[in-house]
Write a structure and sequence with these properties.
This protein is an alpha+beta fold. The chain has 2 domains: 50 residues, N-terminal domain of TfIIb; 87 residues, GMP Synthetase, Chain A, domain 3 (2-Layer Sandwich). Helix content is 27%, strand content 20%. A 3-stranded antiparallel β-sheet has the order 1-2-3, with no helix packed on it. A two-stranded antiparallel ribbon has the order 4-5. β2 and β3 form a beta hairpin.
Length: 165
């Protein structure tokens, strides 16, 4: 049997006219435990539904054992997946096959030369065999305007930090 996945009813139109943020999906991931006292994550990351359940470790390049994933890998996976989804949506709407599309996200963790703090730098590389670059360019631009990770990178993301009681 070949069951098809029901695609979500999402739009590329900027058709929401609400006065405030309207969540469509919410998830929570809790990071706890670990031994790092140096500002880098270790321990466990677990989603509220239990589907994500990972060990976090420092990468070998930063002196860790590299025996688990790290925040940069998780961010790269999320960004690549999000952009891939946005581009697949606009490709389908343009009557193009999104199956051959792949997205590589390279995330670099480093120092900010302006204030000495830490920054991430992201490079996305889209592989879309057989597509004419002139056809792809406006679709990449539209995907960039739709992808919440890209929007976060360009415009920031409203964030609240609360100490639980």
């Amino acid at each position: 049997m070949n069951d098809h996945i029901r695609l979500p009813d999402l739009s590329t139109d900027k058709d929401f006219q609400g006065e405030s943020f309207a969540p469509i999906y919410t998830t929570t991931v809790t990071v706890s435990g670990g031994t790092a006292a140096h500002g880098r994550a270790s321990g466990k990351a677990r989603s509220d539904d239990g589907v994500l359940d990972l060990d976090l470790r420092m990468p070998a390049e930063l002196g860790g054992d590299g025996q688990g994933t790290n925040p940069e890998q998780l961010f790269a996976a999320g960004f690549a997946a999000c952009f891939h989804g946005a581009l697949s949506l606009v490709a389908r709407q343009a009557a193009l096959d999104p199956v051959p599309i792949s997205v590589d996200a390279t995330v670099a963790f480093g120092r900010d030369p302006e204030d000495g703090g830490y920054l991430l730098h992201v490079d996305l590389v889209v592989k879309w065999p057989g597509i004419d670059p002139e056809i792809a360019a406006p679709l990449l631009e539209k995907a960039d305007s739709l992808c919440p990770y890209a929007r976060m990178a360009w415009h920031g993301t409203p964030t609240t930090i609360t100490l639980a009681s």
